[in-house]
Specification:
Blueprint (H helix, E strand, L loop, with lengths): L5 E4 L4 H7 L3 E4 L2 E7 L2 E2 L2 E2 L5 H18 L7 E8 L5 H12 L5 E6 L10 E8 L4
Parallel strand pairs: 6-7
Antiparallel strand pairs: 1-2, 2-3, 3-8, 4-5, 6-8
């Protein structure tokens, strides 16, 4: 029987302790990745370009998945939050480039704003690590 012990993964962001969350949590073969934005140690990546912001967020997701023992191929669901739904094609392009033929379930919705007005995209991911 698989060990169901919980593992929390941190990015080292001060927000994790302030808000009380982890970058990712793994329980058994399931990995959940928290909402991820284009931020690198307090600096916006991608400027005002939703494609570049999405691309960077997806790279961060890939990194924490690997830290948790998963891969992009294990992702079964993503949730994409955007501040301007008219930019869906640019954001979708970044998602397609990251996942290609993996094609996880996804949802993209427009929200009124994020914690910083500079953020245009926030992405969550859920992965199930295949046995064998």
């Amino acid at each position: 029987m698989e060990d169901q012990q919980r593992q929390n993964f941190s990015s080292g962001s001060p927000w994790e302790d302030i808000v009380g969350y982890s970058r990712a949590v793994r329980v058994g073969n399931v990995v959940e990745v928290t909402g991820t934005v284009a931020d690198d140690q307090g600096k916006l990546v991608g400027g005002n370009d939703p494609y570049l912001q999405a691309k960077f967020a997806l790279q961060k997701i890939k990194g924490v998945l690997e830290q948790a023992g998963a891969h992009m191929e294990d992702v079964v669901r993503t949730r994409i939050f955007v501040t301007d739904i008219t930019q869906w094609e640019a954001i979708g392009k970044a998602h397609q480039e990251a996942f290609g033929s993996i094609k996880p379930c996804t949802t993209m919705v427009q929200v009124s704003r994020f914690i910083s007005d500079q953020y245009l995209v926030e992405i969550e991911a859920s992965a199930i690590i295949s046995e064998g």
